[in-house]
Specification:
alpha/beta; Rossmann fold; 3 domains; six-stranded mixed sheet; five-stranded parallel sheet; 17 helices
């Protein structure tokens, strides 16, 4: 299949890994800020193909994982109301709140439905005018345009029973917060290609210049990721700090301008709390005041919910790139996909789930360069 199999060629991957070995002289920590890239790295063993001097750090790139516990508890409180149809994508259904998850709310009689598009929730609101329909809108910039369009569609249809619980987060402020954090080791970033397909990569230019950190826009297939790493290492070895686009078949510098216009119309930038990290200024979106009637957080008055994380869960350190999942004492013991302590173990993009599903219970040795070149 075009743009799929050609980016999974094993021989080409070994050649690219050998090139990275050949040019690497220093020790470089490179962070990917995308859970999909993390899973691709672990599933294909890309981290094990790299020289010892190149370390991949898994950043806060899983939108489910960074959704704060308070927001999940708000979702559970709303979903438990008898007149509510609560709609969510499947990856949020088993994410634990303080005491339960959406599946458990459903088992107790709550009308919780897994949908494949926010427009499915709009359709439900039209079909059930006597019920209040709430869509759980989380994610980075990638999923936000579809959510914004759902709000506009509900407004156009005059729906007064459609609402959205919004917890959108933005990638560039999180990357800057990581660079400003004490003890930061990140020397380069792999920027998420799907985020940049919407927003472009012009926002990364001042960050790369200000902090002297290369940023390479990268796709999700094995060769995409290896090419992003190769370009980042070449910049680091040469002492350069630029933004490069290694995903030109999808991404342009300007991004998707019509989508950006919709986002500016429906959302407004706000401070956002990230699970395990804390509050990052201007790092999220909420519904603009003009769409306050659709804002579930205001309509249902659930803003005063506060929650406490499990003391065993180290997902905050994992999301900050300060701890590998298999370095957590609870990993694979108290915390498993069947009984997760945090979202990083249950989400399809979580780093802990990636390590568990790939059998990475113990660190593995790097292969020799000669093995890669064959």
């Amino acid at each position: 299949m075009k743009y799929l199999e050609e980016f999974r060629d094993g021989q080409a991957a070994r050649r690219m890994a050998a090139e990275i070995h050949a040019v690497t002289r220093g020790e470089w920590a490179i962070m990917e800020v995308c859970g999909g890239q993390t899973h691709s790295i672990l599933r294909n063993g890309i981290d094990q193909m790299l020289p010892a001097g190149v370390e991949l750090i898994h950043g806060p790139g899983c939108p489910v994982c960074v959704t704060p516990l308070e927001v999940i508890d708000r979702a559970l409180a709303i979903a438990s109301l008898p007149d509510v149809i609560f709609c969510s994508f499947g990856d949020m259904m088993r994410v634990p709140g303080s005491t339960s998850d959406l599946f458990q709310v459903k088992s107790r009689g709550g009308d919780v439905r897994m949908v494949y598009s926010p427009l499915d929730a709009v359709t439900l609101a039209r079909k059930h005018p006597a019920r209040r329909v709430v869509f759980f809108a989380i994610g980075f910039e990638t999923t936000a345009p579809a959510n914004a369009m759902a709000v506009l569609q509900a407004q156009r249809l005059g729906l007064r029973n459609f609402f959205m619980l919004v917890s959108h987060v933005l990638a560039p402020p999180a990357m800057e917060a990581i660079l400003q954090s004490p003890g930061n080791r990140v020397r380069a970033f792999l920027a998420a290609g799907h985020v940049c397909s919407v927003m472009g990569y012009h926002e990364y230019l001042p960050l790369a210049s200000r902090y002297g950190v290369p940023m390479v826009v990268t796709g999700f297939e094995p060769l995409d990721i290896l090419e992003g790493i190769r370009r980042a290492v070449l910049q680091l070895e040469a002492g350069r700090a630029e933004v490069e686009n290694a995903y030109p078949r999808v991404v342009t510098e300007a991004g998707n301008l019509p989508a950006q216009e919709v986002l500016r119309r429906v959302f407004t930038v706000c401070d956002r709390t990230w699970r395990g990290i804390g509050t990052i200024a201007r790092s999220g979106w909420r519904l603009a005041d003009a769409f306050a009637d659709f804002d579930a957080e205001q309509v249902f008055e659930v803003r005063d919910i506060h929650a406490t994380e499990s003391p065993l869960c180290q997902s905050g350190l994992v999301l900050q790139g300060k701890l590998k999942p298999n370095q957590c004492a609870a990993f694979g013991h108290e915390c498993t996909p069947r009984k997760p302590l945090g979202a990083t173990m249950v989400s399809s993009e979580g780093a802990c789930a990636a390590y568990y599903n790939s059998g990475r219970f113990q660190p593995r040795a790097q292969p020799a360069v000669g093995q890669l070149a064959r």
